[in-house]
Amino acid sequence: MRLPSPTLCLLPFLFLTLVQRPTFASIKPYVVYFGGHSHGPKPSSFDANLAKDSHYEFLGSFLGSREFAQDAIFYSYTRHINGFAATLEDEVAAEIAKHPRVVSVFLNQGRRQHTTHSWSFLGLEKDGFVPSSSIWKKARFGEDTIIGNLDTGVWPESESFSDEGWGPIPSKWKGICQNGNDPGFHCNRKLIGARYFNKGYASIVGHLNSSFDTPRDEDGHGSHTLSTAGGNFVAGASVFYMGNGTAKGGSPKARVAAYKVCYPPVDGEECFDADILAAFDAAISDGVDVLSVSLGGNPTAFFNDSVAIGSFHAVKHGIVVICSAGNSGPVDGTVSNVAPWEITVGASTMDREFPSYVVLGNKISFKGESLSAKALPKNKFFPLMSAADARATNASVENALLCKDGSLDPEKAKGKILVCLRGINARVDKGQQAALAGAVGMVLANNKDAGNEILADPHVLPVSHIKYTSGVAIFKYINSTEYPVAYITHPVTRIGMKPAPVVAAFSSKGPNTVTPEILKPDITAPGVSVIAAYTKAQGPTNQDFDTRRVLFNAVSGTSMSCPHVSGIVGLLKTMHPTWSPASIKSAIMTTAMTQDNTMEPILNANHTKASPFSYGAGHIRPNKAMDPGLVYDLTVDDYLNFLCALGYNETQISTFSDAPYECPSKPISLANFNYPSITVPKFNGSITLSRTVKNVGSPNTYKLRIRKPTGVSVYVEPKKLEFKKVGEEKAFTVTLKGKGKAAKDYVFGELIWSDKKHHVRSPIVVKWF
């Protein structure tokens, strides 16, 4: 850990020596979490000061004095989350963790950051017009819903956040515009609030200069995600004249607020737990309705997970929290943000692409994608070479094939089109290395793991990104031809591609490794080549070499799919202000689709059939979600009972929830948790579980349809549910029985309640034990 300055540290050092406290112990930033506060929705400054004082007294009892505690604590969470972040010796942290008041103590660990045509693809508009049946019309475009975003901040000058024509800020807003050391940063009636939190980051990297004291987005990620969720209508948006259209967020009439918690990477991590918790604490008090969180880390126990802790307290106050699933796919068991009170979003394609063709000398062509601004002369062939053959003398063949920094020989690469392999270093960096070596273009070939997933990036030279099998064919052509040549066509924009959606290869997958009884992700949404607002502090590739500046950029990731759902949640909050966060989640999940635009099952990027571990309940359908018919509701008590079933004790849960709690006298089964999906990860051949649905539509009778998982019979009682009024609840049981030989892997089915107008679908996921 780097200290802020030797002079400032000298006196504390001498005093510590005098009282014989060791100075050589390992000191790290920790979060000490006590649970919730009892202050209510509007804690006074006096209450906050009392909470802060209690933190100093508590830590002082371990460190020897209140003064030591004040020096160590860099955040006190005093609003709705009770705890503090402090630099502590490992031994002290271990002692604190034993205290009965403490729910958890965990390291201030890092987490990573995990869009114009997508809303048309989702059915909210058609040919530039908004039909009367669109949720946009029904929900008044998310009018006066407040969407908060935990990310890299915001570029306030973007037209996506202009307040021209906007009315007064809603009276429920209690937040601030914290411009810190950036007098040029201003909020307005659209961008109604902004804050920055960097003390947790500083505890890792050392002293920060004053340039960090601003919510301004120097990265682009935060502006992109926030404008996707709630950005204005902005006509003429494009990336280098491609993807031209009107940019807009899911709730374009929503008010938005930025909470900056992510900064330049430290060992690959950009967002730290202490800052994330502080942002959640502030956002709850500020009065947001929706929180969009496009970041995450490795799945961990809920009480050691800042996003899980913060989102629980938010949901407790009626705020819906939407999180990205992560970008570690296609490996199984990689999904992050797995708490049941969060909506976890995977990423998939839409029906738009930016094709760029590689045409070989033998007239065979291969379709790729790109957003390269530069173009090669039309139909002019150039020498084609494997990047491995352009290897610099001191570089390995592997590094040269990957087009890594310093691996290419300019004498060999000059004037050629290089074929580089995807992997390890950034896709756009490969193009830069090829350009620095004098190449005129690059073919970016997928490795086997990436398969058919090709992405449109704003490369600095002409590039076409091709799928794995195309790459194999091109390498074969190079190796079998004396003078291999090719040209690359300039990318264009095409709409209506099939099949779509396809699950992105990078999208993290289930099963849930923390609580496998809960299916994660919950839903999938567009997350590939999404065009949205950007920063002017960075080029579109976010690389130091890129001096270009854009108003909008195309970016891919579950970070981009998450705010799509956040924007839709904003619409649902406007339409149904009394619905609980769980009801909104249920409406989104049970109305999702599992077929693509060819009416075939949704595929993975490698063209295999996708499963609920890829897409959760399916691909989001906003117009269906506004009228789901029935919902699976959950209360805060249900979440506490869920924690009890996981083995957390009553004292921990009471402290976590900030209210007395006793586990139910009857043992709780996780199988009976009223989630909109059914997952049985340890199936022994027979199980009966229960669910309850609430009518949120007109009175009607729902009948049952079942698609059985392979080798499992499904029996439901009753087989018909009759509802006579809105708000009425009905319970049913589901019995699963094995038949035949037990399957070695997970099997999938679905349960659908239908009144012919509504089709309330729940995935069934089963694994023999």
TrEMBL record:
Look up the record and give one Gene Ontology term from the biological process aspect: response to symbiotic bacterium
Domain Inhibitor I9 per the UniProt entry, residue ranges: 30-112
Q: Which GO terms describe its molecular function?
A: serine-type endopeptidase activity
Note the superkingdom of the native organism.
Eukaryota
Q: Where is the Subtilisin-like protease fibronectin type-III domain?
A: 672-766
Active-site residues? 151 (charge relay system), 221 (charge relay system), 559 (charge relay system)
Q: Which residues form the signal peptide?
A: 1-25
Provide a GO CC annotation, any one: apoplast
Indicate whether tRNA-binding appears among the record's keywords: no
State what this protein does: Required for arbuscular mycorrhiza (AM) development during AM symbiosis with AM fungi (e.g. Glomeromycota intraradices).
Please give the name of this protein.
Subtilisin-like protease SBT5.3
**Organism for this UniProt entry:** Populus euphratica
Per the record, the gene is LOC105116835
